[in-house]
Specification:
heterodimer; A: 291 residues; MetI-like fold; 11 helices; B: 258 residues; alpha/beta; Rossmann fold; six-stranded mixed beta sheet; 10 helices; 35% helix; ATP binding (chain B); P-loop_NTPase (chain B)
């Protein structure tokens, strides 16, 4: 005959121990995050002023305290935007092919494999590739566009993977419901599948943007380097925020190191701002909002 | 408005697996035809061959003829999309489009297919919702999401969505299996009403439902596990349920197997 049993002491202890471990793991994850944020904010605030946001480093002497990252901010925004313009459509269409048309055939498996390979490409290699192909082989000059090309190589696989996952989450019922209404397949994808997956796809794109915005290595060999403002991403060297941080932090003066911290802070803020915008778009389009 | 369906020698496959074999039947216009039979005997598969939804599944194919008022739906030049526009379908699980409001759900079929003026669309949406006995419950919240309705309301919304494109035939794949008795009754009433305008085919596991709503009934069964499903018998519903000619039908209906 079975009786009601009480929880044994050993189980209670195990429960406590595991609980403790979980909290510990949480702390181990959060402490570095918070300390990084704290360090960047406390060190970066010193130079986070209007001059920093509106001036370049043009004509700033090695020991001068002034100067700013306007040229780098413009560069980063343009490069990331261009990288997105290249990789989002390609990535999205690839994901649509894989989910809606591929039927797990030979081509779609090959694409899947190469996307995985692309995910593993070190960012330096992406930069080197664009440097070798675009600048050395085809003979174009250093430009923001070349940087965008390198970034888009890194961005594409992330977009494909996240969009693919989101599209697979769309229940097949909805596709069938649409087909049963006599709606053609491509219209079903455009009007039913994509809107249903929209929020997730936007989030995935933002993650890809965030990843790419902080890349230094691919920019080194493609946008080159400059201290002055270049509004045209298609000609001449440009700057990027990660490059700016890299450059300033390597200089021996405190004034330059301060600028590096502020550059890092600006970069974090830009990524956060972009994320916020994406959240807003997703919220605005979300079905649960009840219009 | 409604049309007759004639099926002859129809086989349906999933890859190399033959799911149904040699089905022939005539489905009369302005009537309700019910398909009954144990699970896995191919009722739903057969239903889906009637509007070319079967082939949507990768690897699935169909052999044989389905004539809609004499026109072969499987003729090589026939556009499957146009077939589905003429033969609407309601699924087992209510599946309103989650990103769309109630209004947009009903309008979806027309809106996704071409341009209809706003005023005309308003009229069609109202008429379809009235046709699906849902208008009074939702007329004040047409702009709310369709997914916010109850299960029974969602299913009626799906019916409204299906009839908004004015099909000739309405196929229903166990439309009440996920619903409570009251919603089921609402949908059965609705079927009786729609029968005046549409050819209705319904798959059901509920014997009483088949007996209540249908004019003719077809009994599907497998010869044995792994073999393709076949139509054992098809007749007037009243005769099927009182005096079936096949022993298997009688056994199934009286609950002796399946």
């Amino acid at each position: 005959m079975t009786t009601i049993q009480h929880i044994s002491t050993s189980r209670r202890i195990k429960d406590r121990v595991v609980q403790g471990l979980v909290y510990l793991a949480f702390a181990a994850a959060v402490v570095p995050l918070v300390s990084v944020l704290w360090l960047v904010i406390s060190n970066g605030l010193a130079r986070f002023d209007l001059e920093f946001l509106t001036h370049s480093m043009n004509g700033i002497g090695a020991r001068d305290a002034h100067g700013g990252a306007y040229h780098a901010i413009i560069g980063t925004l343009q490069q990331v935007l261009l990288a997105g313009v290249i990789s989002v459509p390609i990535g999205l269409f690839t994901a649509i092919y894989l989910v809606e048309y591929g039927n797990n055939g030979r081509l779609s498996r090959a694409i899947s494999f190469f996307v995985d390979v692309m995910t593993g490409i070190p960012s330096v290699v992406a930069g080197l590739f664009v440097f070798a192909f675009w600048i050395l082989f085809l003979g174009f000059e250093y430009s923001g566009w070349a940087g965008a090309l390198a970034l888009s190589i890194l961005m594409m696989p992330t977009v494909v993977r996240s969009a693919e996952e989101m599209l697979r989450l769309v229940p097949n019922d909805l596709r069938e419901a649409s087909y049963a209404l006599g709606v053609a397949k491509w219209r079903t994808i455009v009007k039913v599948v994509l809107p249903t997956a929209f929020t997730g796809i936007v989030t995935g794109i933002m993650l890809a943007v965030a990843r790419v915005a902080g890349e230094t290595a691919p920019l080194l060999m493609t946008v080159f380097f400059t201290n002055s403002i270049n509004h045209d991403p298609f000609s001449g060297p440009q700057m990027g925020l990660p490059l700016f941080v890299f450059d300033q932090a390597a200089r021996p003066n405190d004034t330059a190191v301060d600028r590096a911290w502020t550059g890092a802070l600006t970069l974090i803020l830009i990524v956060m701002l972009l994320n916020l915008v994406a959240r807003l778009i997703a919220w605005w389009r979300s079905p649960a909002r009840g219009r | 408005m409604s049309k007759q369906i004639q099926v002859s020698g129809l086989d349906a496959y999933y890859g190399s697996h033959k799911a149904i074999e040699d089905v022939s039947m005539t489905i009369e216009p302005r009537s309700i035809t019910a398909f009954i039979g144990p699970s896995g005997c191919g009722k739903s598969t057969f239903l889906r061959t009637l509007n070319r939804m079967h082939e949507v599944i990768p690897g699935a194919r169909v052999e044989g003829k389905v004539l809609l008022d004499g026109e072969d739906l499987y003729a090589p030049t026939v556009e499957p999309v146009s077939v589905r526009r003429m033969i609407g379908m309601v699924f087992q699980r209510p599946n309103p489009f989650p990103t769309m409001s109630i209004y947009e759900n009903v309008a979806a079929g027309l809106r996704l297919n071409g341009r209809v003026s706003k005023s005309e669309m308003d009229g069609i949406v109202e008429e379809s919702l009235k046709g699906a006995n849902l208008w009074n419950e939702v007329k004040d919240r047409l702009n709310k999401p369709g997914a916010g309705l109850s299960g029974g309301q969602q299913q009626r919304l799906c019916i409204a969505r299906a009839i908004a494109v004015r099909p000739q035939v309405l196929l229903m794949d166990e439309p009440c299996s996920a619903l409570d008795p009251i919603s089921t009754l609402a949908i059965e009433d609705l079927m009786a009403k729609l029968k005046d305008q549409y050819t209705i085919v319904i798959v059901t596991h509920n014997m009483q439902q088949a007996a209540r709503v249908s004019d003719r009934t077809a009994f599907f069964n497998l010869a044995e596990q792994g073999k393709p499903g076949k139509v054992v018998e098809m007749d007037e519903t009243s005769r099927m349920f009182t005096n079936p000619s096949q022993k298997a039908t009688e056994d199934y209906i009286t609950g002796r197997f399946g």
